[in-house]
Design a protein that fits this description.
This protein is an alpha+beta fold. It has one domain: 2-Layer Sandwich (Alpha-Beta Plaits), CATH 3.30.70. Helix content is 31%, strand content 31%. Strands 1, 2, 3, 4, 5 and 6 form a six-stranded mixed sheet that branches. A hairpin with a 7-residue loop joins strand 3 and strand 4. The radius of gyration is 18 Å and the shape is elongated. The model has no long low-confidence stretch (mean pLDDT 89).
């Protein structure tokens, strides 16, 4: 069984190992989507671009008539860069191109790790469940791409009597 902390650790590793991101404790490029963490970093000026922001995820469940229940984790990550002038469309398009290439690299790595069976949290990752959208924040001159994904995995829905104090 995997949980959100496993997903955080995995995406932090991706941010540390990708040659264009290179997250470290001294040069922060990775954040969880706790808005206070991102805003505090931006206000202190101790964030670096490009950055990888992992959002929290939501859950849905599929029962399949009580046979093989499935837990679906719907999540997202954002790749964010900064441009000097948001009205300079050539620079903006270059930033989106760079981020798209990094996003393709991340998706390729996730598929590779899935195939190698080295990372349980992405064992049931399916590229067909990924969507991406270009984003732009003119106030901070931030350009980015937001990727949504779903990771489905079997749910152990067996009743465990040791977890209940029956009256």
């Amino acid at each position: 069984m995997t949980n959100f902390s496993d997903l955080i650790s995995y995406f932090r590793l991706l941010a540390e190992e990708h040659v264009s991101i290179k997250h470290s404790e001294s040069e922060k490029h990775f954040f969880r989507f706790e808005i206070d963490e991102v805003l505090a970093g931006l206000n202190r000026g101790d964030v670096n671009f490009p950055m990888l922001i992992l959002e929290g995820y939501s859950f849905t469940f599929t029962d399949n008539r009580a046979d093989n229940p499935i837990k679906n984790r719907n999540g997202a990550f954002v790749l964010l860069g900064r441009v000097k002038d948001a009205s300079d469309f050539e620079t903006l398009h270059d930033a989106w191109d760079e981020l798209e290439e990094i996003g393709d690299d991340i998706l390729s790595r996730i598929r590779y790790d899935k195939e190698q069976r080295t990372v349980p949290v992405v064992r049931n990752f399916n590229l067909e469940n990924v969507n991406a959208s270009l984003i732009m924040n003119e106030i901070g001159n931030h350009a980015g791409i937001r990727y949504t994904f779903t990771i489905s995995s079997p749910l152990n829905a067996d009743y465990d009597s040791t977890k209940w104090e029956e009256q």
